[in-house]
Amino acid sequence: MIAIVLALGAAFGWGASDFIGGMKSRRVPLLSVLMISQATALGLLAVVTAARGAGVPEPAALGWAAAAGLAETLAVAALYRGLAVGTISIVAAVAATAPMVPLLTGLVLGEVPGRIQLAGLVFAVLGLVVASAQGRGGSAGRVLPSVGYGALAAVGFGLFFLAMDTASAHDIGWSLFAARLTAVLAIGAVVLATRHRIAVPTKEIPGIALVGVLIVAADALYATASTLGVVGVVSVLGALHTLVTMALARLFLGERLARTQRAGVATALLGVLAISAG
Fold first, then answer.
1. I need a surface site. Which of 9, 63, 145, 236 has the fewest CB within 10 A?
2. Band (227; pLDDT cuts 50, 70, 90)
3. Integer CA distances (angstroms), 15 to 22, 42, 57, 244, in order
4. From CA 210, how far away is CA 206, in angstroms rounded?
5. CB burial string 196-213: b at 16+ within 10 A, e below
6. What is the largest CA-CA distance in the chain?
């Protein structure tokens, strides 16, 4: 029960941070949003790690944490870009299929999923196809990027679920710090390579920094939940952060989908839940 509550808390934190980050990316360059939010998160984790005084875990654990950091960076970058240029509800629904990655990874490794999980996989794919429909008066200029960036985010988050589950089994605090440090270094490398100038209006900085705070809180809740509960269930509950993002888009932006797209979103989410139930 505790793992479920923690995973749902992580979902709320990620959902809120995704929405805020996506909205900021409409007004501020993506690299600037990523650098400020991730640097804020790294600063918080550095303080917490130093205060804990725990010994550095084995290199293998840090390696998995670094992999998790790279995967999450890819996912967040794709998600923010999708939320900035596409339809939020579609991007969020596609990104919610992240649990398909652990399931498919298990298939490759010889793990045979149950019938419910296989049915969930079919529903998830079917839902994505239907949600991708343009609908009456729809625009491929928004639908296609929504699906593409959402799919890239799903892959990134799915890999993050797998890597962080392994890394957090050794030490949650160090795993989160190593993952965030890797993310900041990766973003910094891109900033230097592209000669991007981090120039953000002062009024935008608090909101972008809040994204980093929410990410740290959500990551900590998820990492703890993954050590207390079954990773398959925890990962799906964590993936429900997209529902929070969709709800905020409806509440603050009045975003509406065509009837067929709403059906596709519902079908995809049903598939995600079936994968968890299996």
1. 63
2. confident
3. 11, 19, 30, 5
4. 6
5. eeeebeeeeeebbbbbbb
6. 59
Please, are residues 130 and 267 in contact by the beta-carbon 8 Å criterion? yes
| Tokens matching residue 149 | 């960036």
Q: How far apart are CA 93 and CA 111, in angstroms?
A: 26
- Give CA–CA dist 271/18, Å, rounded: 22
Task: Indicate the burial class of 59 (C-beta count within 10 angstroms; 0-12, 13-18, 19 or more).
Answer: exposed
DSSP reduced 3-state for 130: helix
Q: What is the DSSP secondary structure assignment for residue 202, as one 8-state letter?
A: G
pLDDT score recorded for residue 136:
45
Res. 144: pLDDT tops 60: yes
Q: Which residues of 111-138 are buried (b: 16+ CB within 10 A; e: fewer)?
A: eebeeebbbbbebbeebbebbbbeeeeb
Please tell me whether the overall predicted TM-score, pTM, comes out greater than 0.85 for this model: no
Two tokens, residue 184: 């900041």
Question: What is the sign of the dihedral through the CA atoms of 252, 255, 259 and 264?
Answer: negative
Give the residue-averaged pLDDT of 88-107.
Answer: 81
CA distance 237 to 272: 9
Provide the H-helix boundaries in 86-203: 88-95, 100-108, 115-131, 140-168, 172-194
pLDDT tens digit sequence for 43-80 = 999 998 888 887 888 888 899 999 999 998 999 999 99
Residue 152: CB atoms within 10 A of its CB come to: 19
Alpha carbon of 202 to those of 26, 80, 199, 273: distances in Å? 16, 20, 9, 41
